[in-house]
Amino acid sequence: MSEKGGLFQVDNDFSQLVKKARRKSLLRNIFATICVSILFFGGLIWVGTYQMYKKAEETQIYDNMWQFVKGANIENNGSIFTNTPYSTTVTTARYKEIDGVPVPWGEHTKVHSILGTSHESLTSAISSSGNIEEERIPLYFQGERVVEFYSPIKNYSFLPDDRALLDEIADHQVVEMAFSFDQSYTIDEVRKQFSDQLAWYWVDTASGDEQGSAVQPISGEDAYGFISRIEEANEDSAKRFIQHIEWLQGEGDSKQEAHRLYDALTDAGKSVLTPDNMKIAGAVVTGTPEELRKFNDAPMVRTAVLGATADKY
Questions:
Q1: To 10 degrees, the CA torsion angle through 154, 159, 164, 165?
Q2: pTM to 2 decimals?
């Protein structure tokens, strides 16, 4: 009996050892699986985050080019990247320069997710104040007037002329005003007319089949053109505008719009776009009320729309 009992005791000890070994093996496998999973998913997150950050930087370069060609007298004032493991937010400050005075013009925000999606927004939206019985309802953005443009080849129910408002603005203020022309002009013709008050050129993007159609004016946010600066030759700004439009057709969210824009400017590729043959349909001028009054009788001006104002000092 003792031998038999001893044999069973040995078998029982051996069974316990086997079970203990199995538990250790199971725990090791679980631990190894957890470690591998952590490394695997951590690697995926790292790769996804890296690609997200890289995509955000590349997209910002594209967006900066696009914002150079779109938006009347609107410039970027640098971008801030806010990164997390799962998203990156790019916040770009915008401003207008009115006779040397910078006027904040909201922020453009674009959020990129690790899943490859993105969405964008402005901190403020354009609003209006008035009723449908009025001939024209001015637009506002962050409390400032928004400029509008009127094509020289289209029919409108009303053509505004805000130059009379210059008499109501204090002399210590500076003013932004958008002029739309009675026809397209060259860069040289526009520069000679408006000289040092010239801030931005509006490029004529209307196609021939749109002539005679009753349409709405173009908000300054949606207008295409380029900045005029004293320190930079206007031809250089025009060349940059052309180069950007050509490059923007290749990739990015706005490549179709860039392609449409280029076709409108080149008559569907029938002509070569150069600064010399670029059609300028309007301009933004800035200065004191007194400086802008000298354009009250400018024959090439079809409409005049008041934009933002600021204290000079």
A1: -90
A2: 0.81
